């Protein structure tokens, strides 16, 4: 992680907490404690006012304060304070003028769109070997917002690093500070020490697990006393590799059978269910043996559950009826992080509060017969309260919670396997073209170019299956690996819309996002002024490059220009993280 990390640095770290208390004998010879510190950590120094992490960023590392004082902001800072500004919404007149009178030069910008903002907001500086974003007027910000001081020995950011989730708070350096950055691989290895592992588990279980369970529609309105028991019984497990994108280009070349066989097996088909499994991060594949291979029946994403049908049936079945075994295998697609709730805890603490409509039909009828009231169940009282617009980090209430493969199976098993094999199920706004309707007029590309400074954000090319083409355009992914490692936080997800966009004024053209995107949906371009002259970097006098990609026309009043411009309704944007939308598209286009 840091080639300059020396043996003397490691020895110094071993003299400080928590490393001084770790038991070296608990680490294998292949990965000793000293090796973890040397290979998976790096020393970072921050100046007063420098932003360390920003709320909403994705990261793959945690931070341990070694010296100095930092502040964790309880109140959310404004986007402009973190160097980000929401693009102004264009009027219809402005959008029309942009279309009728495009710039003469592709990727031309005003100076305000190229240089980072200053004037009491934030500014970008180059310090030593890294790019730093500074918050101006720190004292005023701290006096106006609630914050918590984090001093030497305190760790933060480990939940976002270990579970691939956005940062929940902004942390800045109050004074000149020294921190140790520990990437997620190192955090995982440090858990070889039982004391360190227990400390991390207890912190997660007390601070974050109740929140993550509440995000699941099935448990959102569970009484607090029942939730306490569920939290205590829940087990945390992970399968596959968190850095799945590094293996993506290799695994996609395998045959479906080989790819499925290479995926970690979570639960085997045919046995009795012992846990309700909740997907916390990543994707799982549901499949069944078929001939000499497998048949994919569905896939699961964040917030969805596995074995609900079987557990609910077994808990309510008549004594004379045999228990229902697991109907599908569950395998990790790249990476899968799960929560496991024991069957007996589900039956006693959760099932009485689940709405009948969320259960299989035969289970719901059996529960009605058991209570004899014909009532809809305790959980149904919360039905109206659940019909609220979801935030970006919440699982949709439309996500299927019943894992009956018959209800989720697509029209074509081969299409489903194609989507999973190419990891297209990661896309929340995938661009799909029905080639049976497309006349190759390229109006979609022209409209995109007219909206984005003369340079379209996609080409009408991409993977094809049956009559559908999945275009090489940003899909605004569920797991946006492009957002990991951006030094200034220029690439971010809009909380209200879920759109991933790049704030160009603080983009330094480092290519981190473009190199990380497994779908090649981000490109680097040189920016010019209105006269076609390239902007030059003030330090090295080289042309300034910026990362660009599809922003879903977030500032346009009519939404995505590519969709609006298609004269034949051939182009759509759909959420491939849910099987239902793809199933609906296939059914509509084949009728």
UniProtKB/TrEMBL annotation:
What CDD domains does its record include? CAP_ED, DMSOR_beta_like
A molecular function (GO) term: metal ion binding
Q: Say if the entry is tagged with keyword Iron-sulfur.
A: yes
Per UniProt, residues of the 4Fe-4S ferredoxin-type domain are: 429-448, 498-527
Q: Which InterPro entries match?
A: 4Fe4S_Fe-S-bd, 4Fe4S_Fe_S_CS, cNMP-bd_dom, cNMP-bd_dom_sf, RmlC-like_jellyroll, RnfB_subfamily
Where is region (Disordered) located? 365-402
Which keywords describe this protein according to UniProt?
4Fe-4S, Iron, Iron-sulfur, Metal-binding, Repeat
Alphabetized PANTHER family for the sequence: ELECTRON TRANSPORT PROTEIN HYDN-RELATED, OXIDOREDUCTASE
**Annotated protein name in UniProt:** Electron transport protein HydN
- Record gene name: hydN
């Amino acid at each position: 992680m840091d080639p300059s990390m020396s043996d003397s640095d490691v020895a110094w770290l071993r003299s400080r907490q928590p490393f001084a208390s770790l038991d070296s004998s608990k680490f294998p010879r292949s990965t000793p404690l000293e090796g973890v510190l040397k290979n998976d950590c790096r020393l970072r120094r921050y100046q007063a006012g420098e932003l360390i992490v920003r709320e909403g960023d994705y990261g793959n590392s945690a931070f341990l304060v070694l010296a100095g004082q930092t502040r964790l902001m309880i109140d959310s800072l404004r986007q402009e304070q973190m160097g980000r500004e929401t693009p102004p919404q264009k009027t219809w007149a402005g959008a029309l003028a942009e279309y009728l009178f495009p710039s003469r030069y592709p990727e031309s910008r005003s100076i305000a769109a190229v240089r980072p903002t200053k004037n009491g907001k934030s500014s970008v500086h180059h310090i030593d070997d890294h790019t730093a974003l500074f918050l101006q007027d720190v004292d005023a910000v701290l006096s106006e917002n609630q914050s918590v001081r984090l001093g030497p020995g305190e760790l933060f950011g480990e939940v976002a690093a270990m579970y691939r989730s956005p940062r929940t708070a902004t942390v800045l350096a109050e004074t000149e500070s020294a921190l140790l950055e520990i990437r997620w691989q190192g955090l995982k290895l440090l858990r070889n020490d039982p004391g360190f592992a227990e400390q991390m588990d207890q912190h997660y279980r007390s601070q974050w697990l109740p929140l993550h369970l509440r995000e699941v529609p099935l448990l959102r309105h569970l009484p607090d006393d029942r939730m306490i028991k569920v939290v205590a019984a829940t087990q945390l497990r992970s399968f596959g590799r968190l850095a799945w994108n590094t293996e993506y280009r290799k695994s996609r070349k395998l045959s479906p059978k080989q790819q499925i066989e290479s995926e970690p097996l979570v639960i085997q088909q045919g046995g009795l269910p012992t846990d309700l499994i909740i997907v916390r991060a990543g994707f799982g594949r549901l499949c069944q043996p078929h001939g000499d291979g497998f048949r994919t029946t569905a896939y699961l994403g964040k917030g969805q559950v596995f074995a609900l049908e079987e557990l609910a049936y077994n808990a309510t079945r008549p004594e004379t009826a045999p228990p229902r075994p697991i109907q599908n295998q569950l395998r990790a697609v790249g990476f899968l992080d799960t929560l496991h709730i024991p069957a007996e805890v589900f039956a006693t603490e959760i099932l009485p509060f689940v709405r009948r409509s969320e259960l299989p039909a035969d289970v719901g009828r059996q529960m009605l017969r058991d209570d004899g009231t014909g009532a809809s169940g305790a959980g149904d009282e919360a039905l109206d309260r659940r019909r609220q617009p979801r935030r970006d980090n919440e699982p949709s209430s439309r996500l299927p919670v019943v894992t009956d493969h018959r209800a989720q199976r697509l029209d074509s098993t081969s299409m489903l396997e194609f989507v999973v094999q190419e990891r297209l199920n990661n896309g929340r706004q995938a661009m799909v073209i029905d080639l049976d309707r497309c006349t190759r007029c390229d109006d979609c590309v022209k409209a995109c170019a007219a909206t984005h400074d003369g340079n379209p954000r996609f080409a009408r090319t991409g993977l094809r299956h049956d009559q559908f083409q999945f275009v090489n355009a940003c899909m605004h992914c569920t797991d946006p690996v492009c957002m990991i490692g951006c030094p200034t936080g220029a690439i971010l997800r809009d909380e209200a819309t879920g759109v991933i966009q790049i704030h160009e004024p603080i983009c330094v053209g480092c290519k981190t996002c473009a190199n990380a995107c497994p779908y090649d949906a981000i490109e680097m371009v040189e920016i010019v002024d209105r006269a076609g002259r390239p902007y030059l970097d003030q330090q090295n006098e080289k042309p300034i490059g910026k990362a660009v990609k599809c922003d879903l026309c977030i500032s346009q009043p009519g939404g995505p220009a590519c969709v609006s411009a298609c004269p034949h309704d051939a182009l759509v944007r759909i959420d491939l993280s849910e099987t239902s939308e793809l199933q609906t598209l296939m059914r509509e286009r084949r009728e």
